[in-house]
Each structure stands twice: as C-alpha cells, then as structure tokens.
C-alpha cells in the first residue's frame, strides 16, 4: 500500500471498525443521490446517449 503522511506521523492498524458517516441524515443522503443521478444523466446526454427503460 502506498501511503503519504505528514512528517513524524505514525501509521497504525485500528483494532476495531471505523464508522464513516457521509451524510448527516437520510434527507441529506437522498439529496446527494439525486445530485449524483442528475450529474450522471447530464454526462450521458452530453455524450449523445439515449435513455433506456
């Protein structure tokens, strides 16, 4: 594994699980998902892709 750290920083393996929360609540999660979906759809449209159902 390649890892870059600050000078003098110590890298250690954690003994337990790490909970990484990316949204403050379910509403924020939904908004993030809608934004990703819109960006993906725009990218496909700009590439000339047609929607499929």
TrEMBL record:
<protein>
    <submittedName>
        <fullName>CAZy families GT2 protein</fullName>
    </submittedName>
</protein>
